[in-house]
Each structure stands twice: as structure tokens, then as C-alpha cells.
Write a structure and sequence with these properties.
single chain; about 0% strand; about 210 residues; 2 strands; mainly alpha
Length: about 210
């Protein structure tokens, strides 16, 4: 009994140290293999212990099965599918970042209402001056229409201006009021929050 107990206390390290001078090749190989097995078992036991401490029912077989499952090489189809999923994830991430950047740019480019009003006033004066004094009325009207579509339309949309119900034939933008005796007065769209230039000739209530 004593010999058996004493033999159980002899470690692999002790045996390797004793055999190394006599048979170094064998000791080195077995020492490496034994070390690898002992290290792997220690890691497995540590994982199981950690899982049990978290309230999970796991044992050594579960850990080894999981390691074996993930150690298998992926097939060509699986690698292509994984690559496709990674590309889609990256594409979605880049698209999301670009959308946020565009939103930030739009917020930072909000034009003050006063500047918009000044722009509408100047454009109205200029277009009316050209229509009144330029000899080629057709070319003037065509040029004004092109400028409205390509340039001014952006600023009108920035104010979310709606067509005035009292003037269905006119576009939704500040224009010289055709019913007032003073053509220089700018007619604001009633949908815009600019009550300082109301048109007294329009009885239409504010749009909701």
C-alpha cells in the first residue's frame, strides 16, 4: 500500500528528469506530448469550472465537442458564403455611416429664413426687370424657367413651401403680387412662417 501511494506521488516531471541522462530522445518526445495533454486538460477543466460558476450545465465532453466542431476546415462553399456575409455587413456599415454624414451635412447647411427672403426678393426684382426691359421676352422667360428649375427650386424646397390656394396658377414661391398696386412687394407663400410680409389682397387662411 505504501509503495503504491508513493508511486502515485511521482510526477511526470520527476520521471523525465531521471530518464533524460539515460535516454534523452525518448524523454524529450514524451515530455512534450505529456505537457501538451496536461495543458489541454487543464484548459478544458478551467472552461468547465468557469461555465459551472455561471450556472451552466457543461462538462468536459461538451467542451471537447465544441472545440472539435470549430476545428473542422470550412468547405469552399462555406468560405464563399462567409465572405459574402462579411461583405454585406461591411457594405451596410459604410452605407449607414454615409447616411449619417449626409444628414449632418444637411443639418449644417440650413439656410436662415432672412437670407432666403433676401434671395427671393432679389431674384424677383431681377426677373421682373429682365421681363420688363429685355427685348427678347421669349428668351428671358425660358432663361427664368431654367434658372427656377435648376437653382431656385432647391431653395424653395428648403422652406417646404406649398402652393397658395388663392393662386393655383402660380408656382409656390414668393412673387410680385399681381393684385396689388405696388409690384415691388414680395408675396410670401401663406404656408411659410413669414408673417411680416402678408399679402392684404389674399383672404385665404393659413394652410395647415
Amino acid at each position: 500500500f505504501l509503495i503504491t501511494s508513493a508511486w502515485k506521488e511521482v510526477t511526470v516531471r520527476c520521471l523525465c528528469a531521471a530518464w533524460r541522462p539515460l535516454w534523452p530522445e525518448c524523454v524529450l518526445q514524451r515530455d512534450f506530448e505529456g505537457f501538451e495533454e496536461l495543458e489541454e486538460e487543464a484548459v478544458v477543466h478551467e472552461i468547465v469550472s468557469l461555465g459551472n460558476s455561471m450556472g451552466l450545465e457543461v462538462d468536459d465532453d461538451d467542451v471537447e465537442e465544441l472545440v472539435e466542431e470549430h476545428s473542422k476546415e470550412l468547405s469552399t462553399e462555406e468560405l464563399l458564403e462567409l465572405h459574402k456575409e462579411q461583405n454585406e455587413t461591411l457594405k451596410w456599415s459604410l452605407t449607414s455611416e454615409e447616411s449619417e454624414e449626409e444628414e449632418d451635412k444637411e443639418e449644417s447647411r440650413i439656410i436662415p429664413a432672412k437670407d432666403l427672403k433676401d434671395e427671393f426678393f432679389c431674384w424677383s426684382k431681377l426677373s421682373k426687370l429682365a421681363e420688363d426691359y429685355h427685348p427678347d421676352v421669349g428668351s428671358v422667360q425660358k432663361a427664368i424657367s431654367v434658372f427656377n428649375d435648376n437653382i431656385m427650386n432647391y431653395f424653395w424646397k428648403s422652406q417646404s413651401c406649398l402652393p397658395c390656394p388663392a393662386l393655383p396658377s402660380l408656382p409656390a414661391l414668393p412673387l410680385p403680387c399681381p393684385t396689388l398696386p405696388c409690384p415691388d412687394l414680395i408675396l410670401p407663400c401663406p404656408a411659410l412662417p413669414c408673417p411680416d410680409l402678408p399679402c392684404p389682397a389674399l383672404p385665404c387662411p393659413p394652410m395647415t
